[in-house]
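Usage

Read records sequentially. Each one opens with the input sequence:
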Amino acid sequence: MPTQVIRCQHPVGQGGFHTSEIRIRSSRTEKFTIVYDCGATQNDALQQSIDWYVNNYEKIDLLVLSHLDNDHVQGLDQLLTHISVDTVLIPYIDQQVNLADIFRIEAETGTNLNHIEACLEPDVWFGKRGVGRVIRARGNSDDDMRAPEEPPRDAGERDELGFSLKVDKNKLKQVRKQKSAQAELSDLAPGSCLGISHPSSSIDWVLIPYVSSEPSVKLADFQREVRAILFGSKTTKRRIRSEDLATSLKDRRQRMRLKRAYGRFKPSRARSTHNHVSMSLYSGPMSPFNPATPKFQTFLLTHWPHSNLDACPVGWLATGDAPFRNEAYRTKWMHYYHRYLQNISTLVLSHHGSRLDFHRDLVCATSAYNFVANASDPPQYRGHASDEIHDYVESHGANFIHVSQYPESEFLEIIQKL
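and closes with the structure output:
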């Protein structure tokens, strides 16, 4: 079991930048570091947080990205320029969904060649920035309701010199090998659980991603249309590379054809299908919480009212942009995490605390007592963060924590083993 866990939700405004470190008593200098998302629309606030982090840490063991929207990844270039990253974990997204996402961003902000490469060829994009391995977490299908499995004790390669990420090799399928300026690319099977190991200690701490990706037939038709424009054939199975799409977007005629194709196939409702592809992450003990045998003491080093908590759960769960108003999605998500919902102390609310992606089950069915919304102040978008959610959370005796772009809103937790 870890001796100490330090978690920080940095004040970056409309976006997200969470960092954590895990330590054990036998190794006072070593730590396993995790970053979840790195982006925001307030550039100055984001840059200040990144500068602080790279000045205080030498490397990131695991970088997790919920999805590739700009307000979740905008700071990656700044971060990766100044710090090394061992492994990146991203959601597996079918190419037709990736294409729809690229054209949505293109319609909103113009062509972003950087974003195109990151979406279509993440191993190349991250490899150019020094990352050694990219893992794509695959989503569960509709008829696959398996809960995550505990990683076997002999899974992965044990690093005798310090912390390492433990992954069951039977759950990991290599797609492309590591080359010069190209990271190794592997797919992680649904229901997989990542562990953290150390040669001197057994660590009851796991990382469990959840991805739900179900592209529609309509988006598959869109992919065929794009192939027809790029390669002259709807039936070709040729892989669409970032340079193919970038070249076409630079050509005015091709660009207009691609835009018209997207206009025909894009969803008519406000929230499009590809926004559902967002990865949640549980970080916490594998063992169920038992209040009769308290093991941790939590200090909330902020101005929030509860500053010293004993015998409470200590798990953390971030939800990206998960669409919890969608009953089918919410049911699957809660079934998947049901074993861990009573292990949670802190839940990072979906979509910057928007009421459009909130459901009361998140409060009633979990043990969380901190609900975090990452949003600018005043709100950049209406309802981010929602006053309605604020009132509901606090009416149930929990803390609603609005982390904005202001330094004093930073949310820092130090969890100490008793």
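Summary fields computed downstream for this record:
- Confidence is low (pLDDT under 50) at residues 269-275.
- The CA atoms of residues 360 and 392 lie 8 Å apart.
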